[in-house]
Amino acid sequence: MKDQHLVTLDVNGREYEVVLESRRTLADVLRQDLGLTGTHLGCEHGICGACTVLLDGEPVRSCLVFGVQADGRSVRTVEGLADGDELSDLQQAFSRCHGLQCGFCTPGFLMLAEAYLDTEPAGDPEEVRDVVSANLCRCTGYQGIVEAVTEVAAARRKQRDG
Amino acid sequence: MADQVGQRTPRKEDRRLLTGTATFGSDVQFPRMAHARVVRSLVAHGAITAIDASAARALPGVVDVVTAADVPTGLAIPVRLQVPDTDVSGRLQPVLAATEVRYVGEPVAVVVADDPYVAEDASGLVTVDIDDRDPLVDVDDATEADVVADFGLGYGDVDTAFGRAAHVVAMDVAVGRHTAVPMEPRALTVEYQPATDSLSVYGATKVPVFNRQVLAGLLGMDESAIRMHAVDAGGGFGVRGEFYPEDFLVPWLARRLRRAVSWVEDRAEHLVAVNHSRQQRHRVEAAFAADGTILGLRDDVRHDNGAYVRTHGVIVPELTLAMLPGPYRVPAYRGRVRVVLTNKTPCGTYRAPGRYEGTTAREQLFDLAAAELGLDRVELRRRNLLGSDELPHTRAMHTLGTDVVLDGGDYVRLLDRALARVDELGWRQLVDAGRAEGRLLGLGLAVFLEKSGLGPYDTADVEITSTGRVRVLSGGTSLGQGIETALAQIAADEFGVPYDAVDVINGDTLLQPYGTGSWASRSTVVAGSAVQRAAREVAVRVRELGARLLEAAPDDVELVDGAVRVKGVPGSARSLAEVWQAAQPRAGWLAADEPAGLAARHRFTVDHMTYPYGAHVCAVEVDPGTGNVQVLRYLVAYEIGRAVNPTLVEGQLRGGVAQGMGGALLEELVYDEQGQPQSTTFMDYLLPTAAEVPAVDLVVCEDAPAATNPLGARGAGEGGVTAAGAAVASAVSDAIGVPAIGKLPVDPRSVVRLLRSEDRTTRHSVALS
Question: Measured between CB atoms, which of B23, B182, B690 is closest to A138?
């Protein structure tokens, strides 16, 4: 008999109820059970960061989190970034700075960067480089990613400072 | 509408990739889809004595377990790229191992279950009994029987050149075993339609038309009953999209089980299953006149190809030899390569195949030669680069089925431009200042020749659709490189429409059955030329029908800003949508028997490749305690001919540098003496992160448009990688005061060993002037 659990989670502001085996990863819950395939699996051992989502606002590797651990918590994924057809400032900056090519690692970088930007950083390029070194990209050489996050940090700071 | 080609237009691909709405292979899901898991050999070499799948079959949720006994006998994966006068037919990889396993990771069985977790559980219950045999892990231990091909390329009287040389410089260069590591592991979803006995395959990339032909052959099906659908692909770099055992097994299982089957590999599997590349040992020698002029060059290469010959045949060793002389004036050359089969994962191409290895060997030899001859490293190269007046330059060799004809260009000018930029950036002062503080800094340089625009052909269809959009059905494939955007720009210019009025579909075999795929930096050049020609033919048709609508002579109308009008009369304009309406049979404008619609197919053919070229310069710092190498600065100068989209060119070069640096410093697929792979996670196979890859300065030149294609483009896919191993090795040798480095990756352990070695001299020149 499988070990099943009823789990409630809030994903991008919408509540879901799912019945899960205890070993089912959050990544598989999002991708297979909820159809949110924007979260990608690149290594399934917590190194590449392609599967990064925000769990109660904190970046986590969703390949290393069990779905049951998200019970009663809020999850934010790449599908929650744009406002309808309007891309977020960070999404626009990634495109403008050519911070993506194949785009497979991109959702993970976007969520990692969102969590960083939420800390209201000064956006020093060296600090940004340090932050984004948590994830792997094989296409871009990282330069466009660093530029995009740095630009958005500066723009949001300017907006905050009015 | 201004020309779209040459503009830094944002990418058409970006929106879906940024919003999580892109469709990668594993995102395609069907109701009641089954999940496959491959059981792989845990032994490097041995005879299969028994396979027991009873426990796996008994597990609830398991649908099927298959072994070689279930598939037709003798099925092996054919070679895609043949090298003349070589016969590798007895060494091809079977779709499932039957009697013998030859590497850790070789498929021996497949489990199919209703759920991927159960499939993985069941795969662990399949027991495979193997009588171990001795594995061959090192090419030094190979016997004649292990050599699958032994051939040479060259021209001129090499022995005489070496006989009369004032200096002969020789060294051994070993390049490590690398693989491309696209961030998306391989994935295939196959849907079976019982009513028509046909298959829909999602996840085949790179060369779908060829792969469909192979699949149809292995399954005994008509090609028209198999459709390869275009999906997004998370990076290719040579490894993704070749025909692997799974490319047979998953469709075959879907047909056997009469239901959709999905297979997604995990990263540990990927690192032992997908093509490896690069591992070669070179004994390279050059003969010089007293003034440093090259008289002759020879190279003896041993290529570790792993357990089988896969789809690339022995093309990587051939390319290694054919490209080894690079951009230099080499009057006599002889290369020999022995392709050795070992008990490791089989090899194929990885971005800049043969050139990364050969450029490393040649450029390190030239650094050593400069030290031994007492010449500056730049001066030695400058003296020996082919001059612009010597191009085109034919070498009496062939590769990829074409003659080696280096087309026009100015190699010396490019080198000068690179060094002028290094001066502007103040890198010499940076290195000098660091050294004055007692730190180990060094500058490195490598010059290289690339190849691009491989024919013999590619095909494109262009059509106008009902709302007046332009639709391109291309033979290229989208692996993340931005080909949709580039082809849209090319097509847009023929109609004067914005590039976002163009829709590009790549790699769907139903819509474009004659495509050649995306590889070898060829698709913007060759597929792009096909798109331009097809679009031009449609534009002619648009003017023809437009003239009819306007009741004017075809010569009196023009196609401007996406509309046909009487020349100089904007008010007369008829939109593409209106002309499309007129091209419909019901509209009454067509003559009897005249074809309906506005569409054209063009097959662009080209005999010769184009040869882009460039230089890499970098500054590194070595930690004398740990041997760690930090790349501080990096520059690539590259002749692109004509950039369709400069931003995309820059992205290709920057990404290439990161991969090349990885191979130079971090990445190596290590095996122990039993043939057990030691690098099966990202903790062991180290990819560069943002902390290791510096910002890359670029000098992208459009000084020498290619004459081999109407765009003048030279291809951008590989020039960022090609010389990165050579340039980093050059900089490290400069930093630690050895003339050259004979092994990649330059890992901390080898740096520490070199720092302690007797040969360490005072640093040679960093003048680079």
Answer: B182
A112 closest CA partner among A53, A157, A155: A53
Residue B448, both tokens: 């290289």
Asked if residues B495 and B470 have their Cβ atoms less than 8 Å apart, the reply is yes
DSSP A91-142: HHHHHHTT--SS-SSHHHHHHHHHHHHTT-----HHHHHHHHTTS--SSS-S
Lateral strand order in the sheet of B294-304: B147-155, B333-340, B294-304, B280-288, B167-175, B743-744
Q: Is residue B55 predicted with pLDDT exceeding 90?
A: yes
* % residues pLDDT > 70 (chain B): 98
User: Is the full-model pTM beyond 0.95?
Assistant: yes
pLDDT value at residue B761: 60
* Cα separation, B748 vs B768, whole angstroms: 26
CB atoms within 10 A of CB B90: 8
pLDDT of residue B757: 81
Are A39 and A60 spatial neighbours (Cβ–Cβ below 8 Å)?
no
pLDDT tens for each residue of B395-419: 999 888 888 999 989 999 999 999 9
Tell me: pLDDT of B767 over 90.
no
Strands B393-399, B557-560: pairing kind? unpaired
Q: Which of A138, A145, A146, A149 to mutate to test the interface with B (most CBs of B within 10 A)?
A: A138
**Residue B577: Cβ-neighbour burial (10 angstroms; 0-12, 13-18, 19+):** middle
Q: SS3 of A143, please?
A: helix
Q: Which residues pair with B47 in a beta bridge?
A: B100, B131
Q: Do A141 and B185 touch (CB under 8 A)?
A: no
pLDDT of A117 reads 98
Name the residue in chain A with its Cα closest to that of B181. Answer: A138
